[in-house]
Amino acid sequence: MSKLTVINHPMVQHKLTIMRDVRTGSKDFRELLKEIALLMGYEVTRDFPLEDVEIETPMEKMKARKVSGKKVAIVPILRAGLGMVDGLLTLIPVAKVGHIGLYRNEETHKPVFYYCKLPFDIAQRTIIVTDPMLATGGSACDAIDLLKEKGCTNIRLMCLVAAPEGVRAVQEKHPDVDIYVAAVDDRLNDNCYILPGLGDAGDRIFGTK
Fold it and tell me: How far apart are CA 76 and CA 49, in angstroms?
């Protein structure tokens, strides 16, 4: 079974509370999402291996530690997942960025695939899939399916808010993919939106309805 990590750092929870507030506008929502993605990135990359290297400080030579040649790809699920990319790139500026386009059919609540563009060496990279909302889990599962078809074996899923139903769906279908979230909310409503949630993340990021 994949590991579920709820990142309950006080600053993450503080910023998430502001994002949930219906009075928070798109500008602040986007900035907060970027900040939370950066903070969550520390936990998502916690187990990256380190190696010893020799450097010279202004005072003397020393052995220090750096990340050991880890190649990373950030893959947002369009469109809302884009809002988490800049925060992760601040933390991992050498990461490549791919894109997977999925949208939700409002009648069936099932994801519909429409776009995919990935780095040529995607199978050799540690992949962080981003999507602010993990509702039914359909989009996340389909995106992970696609990545595995491309040969990817080291995939992590980073979301802001999850429903128990979405967590369960990903864990059952992809038990090798660890999930990182800032909160697991109560449930889905009849329209498969997370409650209490924060509304439609894409609309709030981009100011659309």
Answer: 24
| Per-residue model confidence as pLDDT tens digits over 63-89 | 999 988 779 999 999 989 999 999 999
Cβ neighbours around 163 below 10 Å, total: 24
186 is catalytic: no
State yes or no: is 104 an active-site residue: yes
∠ CA 161-167-172, nearest 5°, is: 165
Q: What is the pLDDT of residues 25-45, one digit of tens each?
A: 999 999 999 999 999 999 999
CA distances (Å), origin 126, targets 2, 65, 129, 160 = 16, 20, 10, 20
Sheet holding 183-184, edge to edge: 133-134, 161-162, 183-184
Out of 30, 79, 104, 204, which one is annotated catalytic?
104
Instruction: List the catalytic residue out of 17, 108, 153, 208.
Output: 108
Whole-prediction pTM value?
A: 0.92
| Rounded-to-integer distance, Cα 116 and Cα 99, Å | 6
200 is catalytic: yes
Cis peptide before 164 (omega within 30 of 0): no
